[in-house]
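Practice problem 4.
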């Protein structure tokens, strides 16, 4: 029988997940279908229990539901999702349990590995201290990166650094304001932009200019709309290696796919599908 998968969010109409997962299902000959559902936070529990009752194969959660999901009694978060404070993937276990995961950090890690970045011991500057920064920082700190978080609102950076330090690396992480970025970049191996700078419609803004970047740096922008952000153009002008947010998007989806199905996902096809959808 056909199995249904889905993403819950609000708004969710522009999600690239249906195209990505349906392409993967069809390439593997699976009789599965993935659909986007508009769900409001106050209806999330009912929607998840309904999906479980109807035999859904798995779910993704997106804005504004990722944090709300952690508060629901029906979901058991895995330890990483609990630390991050957000769930983006729901698995309906054979035992009847509903488990919540966060694959965003793993998606970022795989995007860096694909660009041949050595994570352990590398000096990473994370710009931004929102939900995405949280997921990425918890993952990469656990993998042994030396991370400094910089954020417009300095207290948020300090708070995130403190949370990750307390959970993973006592006293190791630092948080700072944006004014420290220039100096930090000189010593850094990787810059990850998790702020909304450069995202449509603010396409002419970037967290750093070519002059502040250098050719030994890998610059990873999690923004994928537009595909090539101003930051990535600045990075190229500085001779830095660049990593697009699309790659993270695909790998966070691929991780979810594997959690649901136990099958290795066709990552290259998923990339191609997402790129085509973004260019359409
Ligand atoms: P997400 O959960 O997707 O990471 P978020 O929680 O809204 O999104 O975080 C957005 C990030 O972009 C924050 O770090 C925000 O900085 P503040 O904490 O100071 O708000 C950052 N950001 C947004 N607009 C910015 C701007 N114009 N300049 C610098 N940083 C900006």
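Answer key:
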């Amino acid at each position: 029988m056909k199995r249904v998968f889905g993403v819950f969010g609000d708004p969710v109409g522009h999600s690239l997940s249906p195209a990505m997962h349906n392409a993967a299902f069809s390439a593997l000959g699976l009789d599965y279908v993935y659909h986007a559902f508009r769900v409001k936070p106050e209806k999330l529990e009912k929607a998840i229990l309904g999906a479980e009752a109807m035999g859904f194969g798995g779910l993704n959660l997106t804005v504004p539901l990722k944090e709300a999901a952690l508060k629901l009694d029906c979901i058991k978060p895995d330890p990483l999702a609990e630390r991050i404070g957000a769930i983006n993937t729901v698995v309906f276990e054979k035992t009847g349990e509903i488990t919540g995961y966060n694959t965003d950090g793993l998606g970022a890690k795989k995007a860096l590995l694909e660009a041949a970045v050595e994570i352990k011991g590398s000096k990473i500057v994370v710009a931004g201290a929102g939900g995405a920064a949280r997921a990425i920082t918890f993952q990469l700190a656990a993998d042994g990166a030396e991370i400094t978080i910089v954020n417009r609102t300095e207290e948020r950076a300090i708070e995130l650094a403190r949370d990750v330090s307390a959970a993973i690396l006592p006293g190791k992480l630092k948080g700072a304001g944006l004014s420290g970025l220039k100096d930090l970049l000189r010593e850094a191996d990787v810059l990850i932009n998790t702020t909304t700078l450069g995202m449509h419609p603010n396409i002419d803004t970037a967290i750093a200019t070519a002059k502040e970047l250098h050719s030994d740096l890998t610059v990873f922008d999690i923004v994928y709309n537009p595909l090539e952000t101003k930051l990535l153009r600045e990075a190229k002008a500085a001779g830095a290696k660049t990593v697009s947010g699309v790659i993270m998007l695909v790998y966070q989806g691929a991780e979810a796919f594997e959690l649901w199905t136990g099958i290795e996902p066709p990552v290259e096809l998923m990339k191609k599908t997402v790129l085509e959808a973004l260019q359409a």
